[in-house]
Sequence to fold (416 residues):
Amino acid sequence: MSQSTSAMGNEKIKTSRRKFLKTATVLAGAAIGYSWLKSSQILLFAAEPKDESLPWYGIVIDIQKCIGCGNCAKACKNENDVPAEPFFFRTWIEQYTVKNDGSVNIVSPNGGIDGFKQTVPDEDIFKSFFVPKMCNHCAKSPCVQVCPVGATYVSPEGVALIDEKYCIGCRYCVQACPYGCRFIHPVKKVANKCTLCYHRLKKGLAPACMETCPTGARMYGNLRDKNSDLVKFLKEHTTQVLRPNLNTGSKLFYNALSSEVR
Amino acid sequence: MKFYVPPQIPRLALAFAIFITLFLVLRHFLVPDTFGKYGHYRAASLIDNAQPEIHYAGQQACFKCHQDIEDKKAQDVHSEIHCETCHGPGEKHVVSSKVEDILKPSGREFCGSCHIINAGKQKSAINQIDLNKHNVGKNCIECHNPHQPWEMKK
Fold:
């Protein structure tokens, strides 16, 4: 009885050693293979830019300063040659009005490009505020993840961009963006969205919406630079991103954001 | 000791080799040049995206010639407003001053686009005017200088 058990024990050790050696060889091979693949990115497109010398852009919108004049939306259309009609916007403004009875009235006539007329009488208003919307330039963009051809991407500066020559206009990204910031360009028939005026940033100029905002409600800056105005603002204020539950890594921070905003 | 290789294996291996080679050749021609340099996209697209011409020159470009306006503006509440907010995109005018496409808006509606009273605006953010009550029938710029709003004209 006892002999047979010890024999079985020996057998067990032998097989487990063989198994161990096998697994170790396979794992080592996989590790070496992976490191080789990683070095030749031509086969594995998972390179993450980690260039610390480049800025990593973030945006702040101060809701308390926004007056809903529509200059940002107007300037954006002028700067980026977005057709005035139909009403597609790279940036637009919404007015939220919380009434005394608790209901919320949200308006955005023509994207707020011509300003707002007060639609709710003063005596019914509990509070009211403007929310400018634009691309959140997410670090983990849903729109980038769904693109089937690699035509949309986050640039090394953290700006979500579109490769217009490569986009096939499948609209997958349009429905993937949880903030509704994308549209199909009515003339070019490819996806279009806010580029944070990438062409202006590269020339050292501010994005058109921030250049023309009369109250300075919009700010952009380098999140890597701990002394930038943007980082200082984020330290000094309680800011919030839209839909934090979706874990999009949004880099558009709103100051004084109400919970009514969707 | 000789391994027994089933006859279908070499044939299958050949088929796989041909398929993989074909795939790699096709891939070589189909994948654009700079694809994958920084990530899963065409690196040259970054250059494409930096190409478009600017329309808004930025107010530093305006102040190179219009120093007098900069000094005027600095003294009053409109100092933080950049020129092109009211005057429209000015890059063409900056490149050649002969191009006179600069907007010179006037009228109650234009000033009202910012200053009209609305419950959505914070009182601290801007002076708000009820256009139906404030000097009806008069143009804003008859009294206010847009560059220096509180330097009242007589």
